[in-house]
Write a structure and sequence with these properties.
CATH superfamily: GTP cyclohydrolase I, C-terminal domain/NADPH-dependent 7-cyano-7-deazaguanine reductase, N-terminal domain
CATH topology: GTP Cyclohydrolase I, domain 2
Structural class: alpha+beta
Largest sheet: 4 strands, antiparallel
Radius of gyration: 16 Å
Number of domains: 1
Shape: globular
Strand content: 35-45%
Helix content: 10-25%
Number of helices: 2
Order of helices and strands: EEEEHHEE
Length: about 130
């Protein structure tokens, strides 16, 4: 049986010589409002350009699950998750977009980014 875990597992990037983007949508994130204790729900959208390491999906799922019973402000939890993922994988670039469900008539979206010093994205190519 699986249980929540704060341990993120990684594996070697199979193509470290190339910039490519990994995108993940995590639609079942939840934590608790630190003021009321009520649950907050969000869809997390993670995208990153790996360098030497990638995050393993089951460990990411268990890591995300570990927030379910923790109180956290939207801004704090988004930045904490990004910091933990960036520390584990040392990506060239990583962006976490957290779209929280409505609370008190307000939708909150928090976007946090990490960029490896000196790394710049390739110029996008538009195909017909």
């Amino acid at each position: 049986m699986s249980a929540p875990s704060t341990r993120l597992e990684i594996f070697p990037n199979p193509a470290p010589e190339r910039d490519y983007t990994i995108r993940m949508t995590i639609p079942e994130f939840s934590c608790l409002c630190p003021k009321t204790g009520q649950p907050d729900f969000a869809t997390l959208k993670l995208e990153y350009v790996p360098h030497e390491l990638c995050v393993e999906l089951k460990s990411l799922k268990l890591y995300i699950w570990s927030f379910r019973s923790r109180g956290a402000f939207h801004e704090a939890v988004t930045n904490e998750i990004l910091a933990d993922l960036a520390a584990a994988t040392a990506p060239r670039f990583m962006r976490l977009l957290a779209e929280f469900n409505v609370r008190g008539g307000i939708y909150t979206t928090v976007v946090a980014e990490h960029r490896q010093p000196g790394w710049t994205a390739a110029t996008p190519i538009s195909l017909p």
